[in-house]
Structure formats: structure tokens, C-alpha cells
Amino acid sequence: MRKFYTLLSREVRSYFYSPIAYIVLIFFLIVSGIDFYFQVSFMNQRQVQYTVEEAFFNSVFFWFAFVLIFPLITMRLFAEEFKLGTIEPLTTAPVRDWQVVLSKFLGALVFYLILWIPTLLYFWIFLRITNQSAAHSAGAYFGSYLMLLLLGMFYLSIGCLTSVLTRNQIIAAVISFCAITLLFFLGLVQFILLDVTSTTRGLLGYFSAIEHMGTFSRGVIDTRPIVLYVSMTIVVLTLTYQAFQSRKWRL
Amino acid sequence: MIKVQNLTKRYAGQTAIQDLNFEVSQGEIMGFLGPNGAGKTTTMRILAGFMPPTSGRATVAGFDVFEQSLQARAHLGYMPENVPLYTDMRVTEYLNYRAALKGVPHRRISERVGDVKELCGLKEVERKLIGTLSKGYRQRVGLADALLAEPDLLILDEPTIGLDPNQIRQVRELIKNLDRQHTILLSTHILPEVEMTCSRVIIIHKGRIEACDTPDNLLGKIRQAGGVVLEAKVGNDNGAGELKKIPGVRDVVTDGEDEWKRFSLWVESGVDVREEVFRLASDRHWTVRELTQRRGTLEDVFVELTHPDVV
Q: How far apart are the C-alpha atoms of B93 and B152, rounded to whole Å?
């Protein structure tokens, strides 16, 4: 357990050793800040049926920033170790492979959560200035951030998997970006392909991250997406672990 | 400490090592020699648990390096070739991290890290980023890392490559001073280093062990060992013919165009013929200006075993 904690703390700190962390943080704050500002000023001008909080988490602007951060966070995880050769001292130390994989995944998750902390400020500032809450209830905040956590887990695990398969960070980033974007926008397919049957439509709805986000940001906690994302994360992490172990046989 | 049985490793389409068998016992410094691509790094990587062998078995401190990898790894300090390090960490920070990773008890970490920094001469760069260090210092960081957990066994893959002569000397001293507590397996290209530090030597070539013995015994086995050189004016005598009559002399090669002739004598190992040569020269009234016994070097052994055409 202590070794795992050692690995994890290095993973989290390693983000801040490199400029990547700061660049991702700044990029993300700019985009999400502008998004928040746009949504509020848009709503100032007309009557709408949703809250600021819902608007913030469900805008195109937000999605754009959202799918881009995962490859940036995860591309270096394994690929860099392979490239630099530091995988050799790492795996010849008395640590287990699952500890390495899990520490990298959780390290990425911690950084991802750090990324979101400043957005809490937006709602606090909104409350201070307008004297009204940005959402109907505390449950809406909870639901939104819970969905962010769930999606984050799933997409970060995909990033881990693509990073473990190559020693080239760019390749890892491109593949995970493709996979995450396709998955995230899967729900939109029903609007594009008009001739799909209602069964297909319903099925795609189950996988639509956009739809899930919509539901959760209204404060409706649906257990089906929770099960989906947690189980998918476990599956992809298991694949990552297997791929990481297979390096021994591919050498 | 190390036991290797029929160890074989094949990569796609080529065999890196073939049926290696050797043992290294407690407290020994074993030198691992071989030309580039002979399979040294492959063998060390297998022993360090970095990759599994294709067939055969290897144990470290009684633990199978594949089946009981974790226990085996806990007993060894491994310094990989070219010493890959996290370039964005500082020296002390990196060593602290490695110590925790290797399970050094929490309260002993700062003491151990201090000790290895002292031992490896890293005090003056302890706050520097590893990425800014010179090759020599990185090498020492790698060595310090290997020593951190006071392992029973050290596996050092080319610890002195890329160092200047002073640094090589320092590392050599360091290794020599360690031998009391540690068993060491080290690979290198620098042969005098092996002669000076190692108690036994394995010479590996094309994935097979060519020789495994103490440096002295290896020297005794080769042709040049104990060769004698005589430089003398022999007048009208047939110098080579006379010298060949001395018991123990196998062959004599003559050089030199003028009246000074240079005779190189190939002698059976373990025989010193210099006294006989002197008597012969004095009986025949040869004028001698050089009589030396040529000491064979490990380099001769190495070349003879790994590149027989050159000799």
C-alpha cells in the first residue's frame, strides 16, 4: 500500500513538473470561463427554460474543451516511460504491474479533478453577485460533478490504454482523441441518421454521454449510466493491465 | 546468489542467448564480458526481472526471477544500460522516491539517501534536476539508486560507459569497496577494469559462454601467456634454432633486419624459461639488450575467444 501511495504521489506531482499541467489548466480555464460568461450573457437577453448550471455543462463549447483534455492528460503516462526507458527501473523495482497501472490511472484522475476545482468558483461568484443560485438545487451540482467524475474515469482509462500500446505520445493522443470523441458524440448519431429504427435510437440513447450529462445536470441521478461508466472503466483498465503485462512477451 | 540454468532467449527470428549456465556465489564480483550484441544486456534484463526467458531457469537469492519475480526483485539493485532516469526530478527527490518504492522503511529513507549520496559523490548536485546533470553524474545517480535498499545482489550493466578516466577510477574504487557486503554482476567493455575488480569472469560471445574462470586462470589458458621476448646480437648463430631447443619453448618468431634480432618465444603456460635463455645467451656470447616476459592481458583472452581470426 505504501508503495502504491509512493507511485501515485509521483504520478500526480509529475504533472506539475512539466509545463503540460499548467498549459492544460490555463487552456481549460479560459475555455470554460468563456463558456460560463457566454451562457450567462445569453440568458440575460431572453427567457429560457434551463438554469445557468445546466447551460454551462451542456454547451457545445464545453464539449469541445471536454473531449480534448483527456488525450492531453493521458498521452504521456506510459508512452513516455517506454520512450525514455524509465520503464526499466520502474518495473525492476519490487512493485506489481497492477500497482503501476492503477497509480497512473488514479494520478490522471486526481489531476483531472484538480482541473475542475476552479469551476466551482464560477458558481460561487455567480451566487455572490446575483444573490441567486445557478441551479435549482444542490442535487444538480452534485449530479453534474458526479457525471464529470464518471465520464472522466471512463475516458481517462481509454487514454491509459492507448498510451500503453505505443511509445509515441502523439500516436497515443490521436487514437484516444478519436475514440473519446466518437464515444462522446455517439448520442448525436440518432439526429444525423434519420432512417434509424426506434430500437437503435433507444439503444444509442443509453450510450449518449450528452444525454447523461443533460439528465445529471438537472439533478436526476440515474443509476444506469453509473453502472455503465464504472463497469466500462474496469473493463478498459483490465485491458490496459493486460497490454502492460504483454510488453514482456513482445520485447 | 545467482543460479542460471539453460537460459535461452529468442527474439523474433534471432537467438540472443543460448543455453547459458553459470552460478555466482555470495560475495563474488563477477565480470560479464562480450562484444556488442553478445547477449549481456539480455541476460541481465532477465535476471533483473525485466523480461522473461524463452526457456530455462534463473534464480536470484533462491527466488525464480519469473515465478517469484517480486521477491527476487526485492533482493537486487539493478542499474540498467544507459541509466534511464526521470529527467524532471531533482536528485534527492528521485532517490527518496526510489527508496520508498524499494520498501526502505520510512524513518530510514533520509539516512539511506544521505549515505548513497555520500558514497557516490552526489552531494554537490543533490538539488539539481537530473535532466541538467552530465553523463557521469547520471551514471552515479543510477548507481546510487541500485545501492539504496542495500541489496544482496547488484546487477550493473556497463556502469562505467561514457565516463572519463577519473570517473571510471572513482566508480571502480566504489565497486571494489562494496564487495564485502554485496554480490556483484557487472558487464563492461573495459578489460583492465575487470582484471582489477572482478574475482571471476564470464566471456560471452554470440549468446554462448566461451569461458568462465578467474582472470588469472583465463590468462594462463591463452597462447600469449608467459611469452618471452629476447633482443640480442647473435652473430652467425641460428638464434631461433638454438632457442627452440630449450624445454618448454613451443615456437620462436624472429624479427629484425640488422644485426640486432628480436625473438618472440611462445612458451607453454606456467613455465618460466628466462633463466635458460640467459644461460644460452651467455654460453654463446650473445649480446643481450632486452629479455622480458610478456604478460598476457585479458584483452588477449577476449580477442582470442571472441574473434579468433585476429590472433
A: 24
